[in-house]
Automatic annotation (TrEMBL):
One of its GO terms (molecular function) is ATP binding. PROSITE patterns: ABC_TRANSPORTER_1 (PS00211), ABC_TRANSPORTER_2 (PS50893). PANTHER family: MALTODEXTRIN IMPORT ATP-BINDING PROTEIN MSMX, TREHALOSE IMPORT ATP-BINDING PROTEIN SUGC. Pfam families: ABC_tran (PF00005), TOBE_2 (PF08402). SMART domains: AAA. This is ABC transporter ATP-binding protein. The lineage of its organism: Bacteria, Pseudomonadati, Pseudomonadota, Gammaproteobacteria, Vibrionales. Keywords: ATP-binding, Cell membrane, Membrane, Nucleotide-binding, Translocase, Transport. GO terms for cellular component: ATP-binding cassette (ABC) transporter complex, substrate-binding subunit-containing.
């Protein structure tokens, strides 16, 4: 398996920039997810790593070798598509063994490796079946089998579960992750589904409008979003973003919104801008007996173990995720507390987070 390093990767289609100066590293054996909304440049990035698209400029190295302008067939990687791309006139065994046949591998070895892959994917019983009658999940397993059998340096997957219904998707997510854990193969995986990304990735790279917003472990970017975009893109419901005008000086441990003082994690560097935003995830907004921050419940959404409350508060609309056993109803007045250790203050002019002591510690711990 291999590590993949990408430096200043740039792709233009005529005047349109699809990928802008991307620099990142995928470590050997990592499950690396490219996440972002439609059109942000995920697939183009993946296709350039695969050699299916050539970069306008920049460099891609696989295991130290510069492959930036090599054709796909000259790179030792396997691609798994959403639409399976199986050969309909071949059965499962023939589909899986096809890449080895093309490489001229001996019959006995092909037989052995097909058996090995079928065992990994638990599809031994399907080997002699035609692919036409298979379920979507089994078709995707066969498609994975055809990729695995080559023992490539890396697997590249473009929304491979996109064609499956949600229940099956969930099952295949766990299967893929388990498969990855067993094989330890470097995998680059494209999705626009944040839950899929969070549940499978070792590392997520969030993209938006052709640029990288943030790269990090799922928990890290969930807890410490670099930008307002990442804060809103991850989480269901997403982070509360309360826009306000004011200032934050170095060392400040509170902000003032609509004359209400809100405690925040201690700011490391002050900023000049007056356009700010306070971010706090719904699970860090709690109901308390008394505080200076009051609100009125506008909606209650029951979700089993928790409930999400929409609250019109003195600093703006807030969502709170609280235990579903707490007895609340629409129209009720409540007092709120935001956990200062889990707040983020953003500069709305740059869209970037303003560094606080918790972020700083976490960045150093991750580095
Ligand atoms: P999706 O999830 O919808 O596939 P994505 O993040 O994977 O989105 P890309 O497919 O990488 O996005 O496309 C990024 C942008 O580049 C899009 O606006 C797309 O229209 C454009 N684009 C992609 N391929 C081409 C091409 N061959 N010619 C012109 N524009 C292209």
């Amino acid at each position: 398996m291999a590590d993949i390093t990408v430096a200043n990767l740039h792709k233009r289609f005529d005047r349109f920039v699809a990928v802008k100066n991307s620099t990142f590293t995928i470590n050997d054996g990592e499950f690396f997810v490219l996440l972002g909304p439609s059109g942000c440049g995920k697939t183009t990035t993946l296709r350039m790593i695969a050699g299916l698209e050539l970069p306008t400029s920049g460099q891609i190295k696989i295991e130290g070798d510069d492959v930036s302008f090599l054709r796909a067939s000259q790179r030792d990687i396997a691609f798994v598509f959403q639409m399976f791309a199986l050969y309909p006139h071949m059965n499962v065994r023939q589909n899986i063994s096809f890449p080895l046949k093309c490489q001229g591998v001996a019959r006995a070895e092909i037989k052995e490796r097909v058996a090995e892959v079928a065992d990994i994917l638990r599809i031994e019983h399907l080997l002699d079946s035609p692919v036409g009658g298979l379920s979507s999940g089994d078709k995707q397993r066969v498609s994975l089998g055809r990729a695995i059998i080559r023992k490539p340096q890396a697997f590249l997957m473009d929304e491979p579960l996109g064609a499956l219904d949600s229940e099956f998707r969930h099952l295949m997510c766990s299967e893929l992750k388990e498969l990855h854990n067993r094989m330890g193969a470097t995998t680059v995986y494209v999705t626009h589904d944040q839950l899929e990304a969070m549940s499978m990735a070792d590392k997520i790279m969030v993209m938006n409008h052709s640029v990288i917003e943030q790269v990090g472990a799922p928990q890290f970017i969930y807890d410490f979003p670099n930008t307002i975009f990442v804060a809103k893109f991850l989480g269901e419901p997403s982070m509360n973003i309360i826009e306000f005008e004011g200032s934050v000086a170095q060392g400040a441990d509170s902000v003032c919104i609509n004359s209400i003082k809100i405690a925040v994690a201690r700011i490391v560097e002050g900023v000049q801008t007056k356009k700010l935003a306070l971010g706090v995830r719904p699970e860090h907004v709690s109901l308390v007996e008394f505080s200076h921050l009051k609100g009125m419940i506008d909606a209650v959404e029951y979700l089993g173990t928790t409930q999400v409350l929409t609250i019109n508060s003195m600093i703006g609309k807030l969502k709170a995720r609280v235990d579903s056993h707490i007895d609340v109803e629409r129209g009720q007045q409540v007092y709120l507390q935001l956990n200062p250790e889990h707040t983020s203050v953003f500069d709305r002019e740059t869209d970037q987070v303003i560094m606080n002591t918790r972020y700083e510690e976490a960045y150093h711990a991750q580095a």
